[in-house]
Amino acid sequence: MYRLFLNRSLNDKIQRVSTELGKDVDVKVISDKAQLAAFGVVKGPAVVSVKYKLKPEGIVPSLEVVKEWIKEL
Predict the structure, then answer these.
(1) What pLDDT, in 10s, does the model give residues 24-69?
(2) What share of the chain is helix, strand, coil (3-state, %, to 5)?
(3) Which terminus of the chain has fewer Cβ atoms in its 10 Å neighbourhood, N or C?
(4) Structural domains of the chain, ranges and CATH numbers in brackets
(5) Is the pTM above the cut of 0.70?
(6) Whose CA is closest to 23, among 6, 45, 7, 2?
């Protein structure tokens, strides 16, 4: 599962890659500032993995980067 603080482009990439890789990815979109702070997110869009590891924030990564994230699941 990924917890996302995202824009539409990042969400689309994650859905596309999860479909390509045949992975079932449970996506939770969080906009509450207290929850964002709890994950260490300062600037969106951001992704926090199931292991609660903050992925790069403030950028929309390439499809290849998103593929590597999804492969970690």
Answers:
(1) 887 777 778 888 888 888 887 777 776 667 777 788 888 898 898 8
(2) 40, 15, 45
(3) N
(4) 2-71 (3.40.30.10)
(5) no
(6) 2
Residue type, 60: V
Structural contact between residues 29 and 6, judged by C-beta atoms closer than 8 angstroms = yes
Measured between alpha carbons, how far is residue 3 from residues 10, 16, 41 in Å? 12, 16, 11
Residue type present at position 50: V
Inform me whether the pLDDT recorded for 20 exceeds 90. Answer: yes
CA 13/CA 59 separation, integer angstroms? 13
Q: What is the pLDDT of residue 40?
A: 86
